[in-house]
Specification:
The structure holds two protein chains of two kinds. The N terminus of chain A is likely disordered. Chain A contains 31 helices and 15 strands. Chain A has five domains: 127 residues, no CATH class; 83 residues, Immunoglobulin-like, CATH 2.60.40.3450; 109 residues, no CATH class; 179 residues, no CATH class; 134 residues, no CATH class. In chain A, the strands form five sheets. A four-stranded mixed beta sheet of chain A has the order 2-10-9-6, with no helix packed on it. Chain A is globular and about 105 Å long. Chain B starts with 11 loop residues before the first helix and ends in a 16-residue tail after the last strand. Chain B is built from four helices and 28 strands. Chain B is mainly beta. The chains are: A alpha+beta, B mainly beta. Chains A and B meet through helix 1, helix 4 and helix 6 of A and loops of B.
Chain lengths: 727, 434
């Protein structure tokens, strides 16, 4: 269509019709920004999926061609009047000369009015994308440093056009803060409201740029107290903390460390014997040794099999009972052998044949269709969400709708057909109607990566025919390439979040320019280290767990108490559903019973959400594995959960079980002091403090029913925050 | 905020003007000046008609104190509407029109064009000698032999979206209005070129206005989702059908004039009895909004089209008993167009169907076989209107680019292309409201 528009412009020029002394305006450069700035293209208005009141524009104006046609061509050119521009509906509506659901957007005679008027008077030229598109934005200042809350700054935004032209677009640009209560934005002015860091996202015509904002603590008297640094993590964390005047908390005590690292590496708290042995150990390297032992333990394999089962959505809902079991075994085997992470991902992405012979095929059986499969690969393996771009260009990223279908085209021929056994499926690359078509115009999309990789594979995606596994081969090579800008980075970030409750980029599976890392240097260093060590997940976890940063106390000081994103102190995290159930099992000495699973199966070992469905695990936020989003696992503490802890059968039965820890301790005839100590060790993973022993003993001696009193004590312990949280 | 008026003060611009526009201007306009009164401007209200200034007369005529009660032949206005007028008169009948609010030029002065307007409606006169073309606030009557300059028929409506001649050529019906303000059906006496009647209806333009074969009634598609049938002699609304769920963009009568087919943005085509307004049939299996409809000259077969780019030929009558969601009336699905369909025409000899749309071309099909016989190219943008000449030999096309093109219907060869309005050079510094 651009050719037809220029033909019209030519016609007008030839007739000497163009208004001579008004500024030349066109849609791309002048009018489209007004539609965006005045809210016409916003989600609640004409940018809605179905438009508003019969008039639809693209969301936030991502598709100027579409908007141009909607404004001008719809309903016999209803919205503009070339013969009498001031009578145009597109001027009468926003100036409320006629009823407009969206209200007054600008005044008659205002600058925006005049621009649209002139544009209509000049024959509604579209403009030339090769000249009038915005290529990039520039901002001034490039970063904002405030020395305390209350300071403010103004951002100046310039657009650089394809023809090299430059324009101040501060008025039309949209400036938003990712932490509005820290950096409050009004138009292009930003005010620091509290100490910390935020990022401004500046958007204009599909382009965006970010501006970091730092608000320092103005309090006088900060003096950096250097703490021991165990490895590069601590050096990079400290470098930033010192700059922000945040004093990190020192390493926590041995018992708290033991409990924390045991839960994080193997999903189980330490046994009373492990606690006592660790506290008695005087070796200087005992923490590092412990980390090595935990990583080598069978429970480590269970714990990370569970995590990957979540992310890969292993569930009999999609895979059948045998399928879910087989897929879990495949994941488990990969973890147990410490298969390099890139190899594990490649095996899944390139899997073919029988799901029973090669359970890696199950990766495809969960999502089945090319589009959700592609979305899952980017969200899980790259931390990139493509889902918005199925319907429109990404509002906060550079990904386009075209790219969605180009990426999905890598999987377009992947098909599944029934195998020979019940529940078996065969993956092949000969699906019927395998062309990936763009929904707008039905054109066939060829596979193309969202970012080019410079890897040295022989496979070139566009060369491979659709029905050739070569497409998936190329995709696997690209995704796991060392120079893929997302793969290793998103992985270390995700793993980091399992140890801190928060990613360096957070949420971990929503990496985009407008969601920057809190410590880019640290993320880069971890990424490089992970790649240099051949995508070794155990090495990565060992490095993190050995850092002082990971081992920091939860206790905050006056300089770091408000910090939430720089890892200056530990943050208590509620135990996951499975951890909680297994910790209860350890504390009470009563194993959970899963009718669908072999005896002695722990919560961490269950195959999929079908096991123990609708019970304690689901109540405490176990994900249904219906989404690849990390957010599917709930970690809040709700009222039904609290009531279950206080009143629920799971806990009261276990505490009172006749074969349980309390019953055995009472029957053994050991003194009260020993019983109290054991209950503390088994629940809170630490010996009771002096006062706690006294009051515990006092309570047990308090009258008849010693066993019931011991049960009460254990019940109280497992209902304490120190039990429910990993701190 | 030039336009924000305190809600309590009675306002001409906000309250009274829109009311006069919708309810009164059909008759009290410069072209008709019933009672020598023009209510299309504040000045006209102030000066009034044969009984003097309208300031003091508006309320008595609206309440029925003075006869005949206004609006003539229509239900009286709601009490609160009359109250608005009463309060405004009581407060001094002031003109509070904000500077820059544009009411359009007076009807006496035809539009001065510096650019060709979009062409939204075309119709050949039955004798084939004239072509009626939509203009801005006017209709232009071109003689096809070019022997005379076009006659200009100025009216209230900025947009003329449909044009239709009666078979005897004595009546020209035009449908249109001003977007988001009012709809209008104009009845022009030919050859005199005088406006016989203007019927104002709804708060927006009317679409797809068609004339019954006996020229007694007019069907109009409305933005209140209704189809209205209006008496072509008295101007009275005869029937209002409300079965559609979105704007109605096209209508056509059956051969005997007893039924009407309407197409709508609700993706359906509906068949309705014009006498009773009773809904009879539906075509609702299509996946896109429908925008255009045309009927075979002598049989109850229609072609419909819209967003999904396929022209569909349907029978108005079922060849067999209906089953739920069957499509047994579908005769043919023509080839997919390169853009959404906006205009359809069936030749007078019944042999050809012309299809225009968002793509800058008009395709001509053999109505019996569905084969494409010609493609008319040359427009630089989308098509809004197509019409066959009475001898079926010529197709007139118009659309976004403002150029009228005449093509040989058999070959698609261009016969003539011209801008159908007189163009002036732009005045220097043509600006906005100031």
């Amino acid at each position: 269509m651009p050719s037809s528009k220029s033909a019209l412009s030519l016609l007008l020029l030839a007739s000497g019709l163009t208004a001579a002394e008004t500024p030349k305006v066109n849609f791309l450069r002048d009018v489209a920004p007004i539609l965006n700035k005045t809210g016409c293209t916003s989600g609640p208005c004409h940018g809605a999926a179905k438009g508003k009141n019969g008039f639809k524009l693209s969301l936030r104006g991502y598709d100027p061609q579409f908007d141009y046609e909607a404004l001008l061509y719809d309903l016999s050119g209803r919205r503009f009047n070339r013969a009498d521009p001031a009578r145009s509906l597109m001027l009468a509506k926003p100036t409320q000369q006629v009823p407009h659901g969206g209200g007054l957007r600008f005044e008659i005679g205002s600058a925006y009015y005049q621009t649209i008027y002139n544009w209509i008077a000049q024959g509604v030229p579209f403009g030339d994308p090769a000249k009038d598109s915005v290529r990039r934005l520039e901002v001034e200042p490039k970063e904002i440093l405030m020395h305390g809350p209350g300071e403010s700054a103004v951002v100046k935004v310039s657009a650089i056009f394809a023809d090299g032209g430059q324009r101040d677009v501060t008025k039309e640009a949209v400036v938003e803060s990712n932490v509005p209560d820290l950096a409050a934005v009004t138009d292009a002015s930003v005010k620091g409201a509290r100490i910390g860091e935020a990022t401004l996202l500046v958007r204009y015509q599909g382009n965006f740029i970010t501006v970091p904002v730092t608000v320092l603590n103005p309090k006088p008297g900060f003096a950096w107290k250097a703490l021991p640094q165990n490895n590069y993590i601590d050096r990079l964390i400290d470098a930033k903390l010192e700059r922000l005047k945040i004093q990190p908390s020192p390493a926590t005590d041995d018992a708290a460390f033991l409990r924390r690292v045991s839960l994080d590496l193997k999903g189980l708290p330490p046994t009373p014997a492990e606690v006592q042995a660790f506290l008695a150990n005087t070796s200087r390297s005992k923490r590092a040794d412990l980390i090595d032992r935990l990583i080598a333990s069978p429970a480590y394999v269970d714990h990370w099999t569970l995590k990957w089962g979540d992310l890969l959505q292993n569930s009999r809902k999609y895979l059948g009972e045998k399928g879910a079991f087989e897929f879990r075994e495949w994941i488990r085997d990969s973890i147990a052998r410490n298969k390099p992470y890139d190899a594990m991902v490649r095996e899944m992405l390139t899997a073919s044949g029988s799901s029973y012979e090669n359970p890696a095929v199950d990766f495809y059986r969960v999502t089945r269709d090319p589009k959700p499969t592609m979305e899952k690969t980017t969200q899980v393996f790259l931390g990139v969400r493509m889902v918005c771009t199925q319907c429109h260009d990404h509002p906060f990223e550079r990904w386009t709708q075209n790219q969605y279908y180009e990426m999905a085209a890598f999987f377009s021929a992947v098909g599944l057909r029934p195998g020979y056994e019940v529940g078996e499926e065969i993956l092949y690359d000969q699906r019927q109607d395998y062309d990936m078509k763009h929904p707008k115009d039905g054109r066939v999309m060829n596979p193309k990566f969202i970012v080019p990789a410079t890897w040295s594979s022989a496979a070139k995606p566009s060369d491979a025919p659709p029905t050739d596994a070569g497409r998936r081969q190329a995709y696997a090579e690209w995704i796991t390439a060392r120079d893929n800008p997302f793969f290793a980075k998103s992985t270390v970030n995700r793993v980091w979040s399992y140890f801190f409750g928060r990613g360096i980029i957070d949420p971990v599976d929503d990496i985009r320019a407008s969601n920057p890392p809190s410590n880019p240097a640290l993320l880069d260093a971890l990424t490089k280290d992970f790649i240099d060590h051949n995508f070794d997940l155990r090495y990565l976890m060992r490095t993190i767990a050995n850092s002082r940063t990971y081992q920091a106390s939860v206790a905050a000081n006056e300089w770091n108490e408000k910090d939430t994103e720089n890892f200056s102190h530990a943050v208590p995290r509620r135990l996951s559903a499975e951890e909680l159930m297994d910790a209860l099992s350890l504390a009470t000495g009563v194993r959970p019973v899963f009718p669908e699973a072999p005896p002695d199966t722990t919560a961490e070992q269950v195959t999929d959400p079908h096991v123990g469905k609708d019970g304690f695990l689901d109540l405490f936020g176990r994900p249904a594995r219906e989404s690849a989003c990390e957010c599917e696992r709930r970690s809040d503490l709700s009222l039904p959960q609290a009531l279950n802890l206080v009143n629920g059968k799971t806990i009261s039965d276990a505490v009172a079980d006749s074969a349980g820890r309390v019953a055995k301790a009472i029957l053994s005839g050991r003194p009260d002091r020993d019983v109290v100590t054991e209950l503390y060790l088994a629940s809170l993973s630490r010996p009771p403090r002096a006062g706690e022993i006294e009051s515990g003993v006092h309570y047990l001696e308090g009258g008849s029913g010693r066993a019931a009193r011991a049960q009460d004590l254990l019940w109280a312990l497992v209902n304490s925050k120190a039990f429910l949280y990993n701190y | 905020m030039a336009l924000s008026l305190p809600a309590a003060d009675p306002s001409y611009f906000r309250d009274v003007r829109p009311l006069l526009q919708r309810q009164c201007q059909g008759c009290h306009q410069p072209n008709l000046k019933s009672s020598n009164l023009d209510l299309t401007s504040y000045q006209g209200v102030k000066e009034g008609g044969k009984r003097g200034s309208a300031f003091g007369l508006l309320v008595p005529f609206l309440t029925g104190e003075m006869k005949p009660q206004m609006p003539l032949g229509q239900p009286p206005l709601a009490p609160e509407q009359i109250e608005l007028v009463r309060n405004w008169v009581a407060a001094g009948a002031k003109d509070d029109t904000p500077a820059g609010a544009v009411e359009g030029p007076a009807l006496g002065a035809p539009t001065v064009y510096t650019q060709p307007p979009v062409l939204t409606a075309l119709a050949f006169s039955p004798d084939g000698r004239m072509l009626a073309v939509s203009g801005n606030r006017e209709i232009l009557l071109h003689t096809l032999d070019g022997s005379q300059p076009p006659r200009r028929l100025p009216g209230l409506s900025d947009s003329i979206l449909s044009l239709a001649f009666s078979r005897d050529g004595s009546l020209l019906v035009a449908g249109g209005g001003v977007p988001a303000r009012f709809g209008e059906i104009q009845f022009w006496d030919l050859p005199a070129g005088e406006l016989r009647r203007s019927v104002m209806l709804t708060g927006d333009t009317v679409f797809g206005v068609s004339l019954s074969p006996d020229a007694t009634r007019v069907a109009a598609g409305c933005t209140d989702n209704s189809v209205r049938i209006v008496d072509a002699v008295t101007g009275k609304e005869l029937t209002k059908m409300g079965a559609h769920e979105n704007w109605v963009l096209g209508t056509v009568f059956s051969v005997d004039g007893k039924r009407v087919v309407s197409v709508s943005r609700d993706r359906s085509a509906k068949l309705t009895d014009t006498a009773t307004g009773a809904f009879q049939e539906n075509i609702n299996l299509l996946r896109g909004e429908l925008a255009a409809v045309a009927r075979h000259p002598s049989r109850d077969i229609v072609v419909i089209g819209g967003e999904d780019r396929y022209p569909y030929v349907y029978l108005m009558d079922r060849p067999k008993n209906m089953k739920i969601a069957d499509d047994s009336t579908l005769v043919r699905k023509l080839e997919r167009q390169n853009g959404a369909i906006t205009a359809l025409a069936w030749s007078a000899d019944g042999k050809r169907i012309a299809v225009g749309g968002a793509a800058p071309e008009v395709n001509v099909y053999d109505a019996d076989t569905g084969a494409r016989v010609a493609a008319c190219r040359g427009h630089s943008a989308g098509i809004y209107s197509v019409a066959f000449s009475p001898d079926s030999a010529t197709i007139a096309t118009g659309g976004f680019d403002g150029t009228l093109r005449l093509y040989d219907a058999a070959t698609g060869a261009l016969k003539k292309a011209f801008v159908p309005v007189p163009l002036e050079k732009a005045t220097a510094g043509a600006g906005g409201a100031q």
